[in-house]
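seq as requested:
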Amino acid sequence: MALSEFSLIQQYFAELTAKRDDVVLGIGDDCALLQCPPQHQLAVSIDTLVENVHFFADVDPHTLGHKSLAVSLSDLAAMGATPAWFTLALTLPEVNEAWLKQFSAGLAELAIQHNIQLVGGDTTRGPLCISIQVHGFVENNQAFRRDQANNGDLIFVSGTLGDAGAALKHRLDNWSPAELTADDWQYLQHRLELPTPQNNLVETLRGNTTAAIDISDGLLADLDHILSKSGNGAVIDLDKLPLSDALTKLPFEQASQLALNSGDDYELCFTVPATKVDNLAPIADKISCIGEITAEKALILRDQTGQQRHYDARKGYDHFGA
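struct tokens:
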């Protein structure tokens, strides 16, 4: 017998994640009832992934389940929020039980890892589309906001940059530089399809970070959001961009352009006063200082010789761009 909408939810999603004590009423009613802790604010974000826009039609459903939640968890990390709950709106062209089993398993593994509970959602028929709304807690007045960067703050990023962009360029443009091996491509593809949200950095960053954003559209485009909101500029040292072993095999200009302009890495970019840098020691091996916030409202790239150039054409991904 074919699955109905409600039996689909019951079989694959109702018991998907671990139970939290702050969920008074979860899946199965018109609304979920959720208990917020005192002296905390609720951080809410939503992301939509559309087939052939955000992921290829032949992507493994298990990795798609992981990425669907990972991109939203990354938003909570960028706000300094602790994950709590999420909802899922899933549009399917058909009921494919093998696909659903793998998709829900990938989703569940990451959800359990971050102790975030599925509390509701919707399913409908149509082109494959996944929307996840996440909710998290942050203590009053402790959120990492884009508008709080100050002149003299140092700019940090987590992880390495440009890996997902390299994998995407390989897939879209058949780009295959001779320097990269099969193992390199496997690593880069993993970075594109299975991003790791940086929520594990949040505890150390609390009280030390003035502004933050996750890198989904490219470092320069996303950093520009911080600069615009804060009314500042920045100097980025190109030789300090963190590159993976794979990308360091490429000519530096090529690798740095990937690191600066390509998205989908879901690393964090954040600013820290110089007086608080020592507090980041517990995560020092996971982050890199790449520049400084300036009073001059310009984004400047500085090479290893000290030569500077203004960067005006922000090239991050824009769904409605030309």
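The chain has a mean pLDDT of 93.
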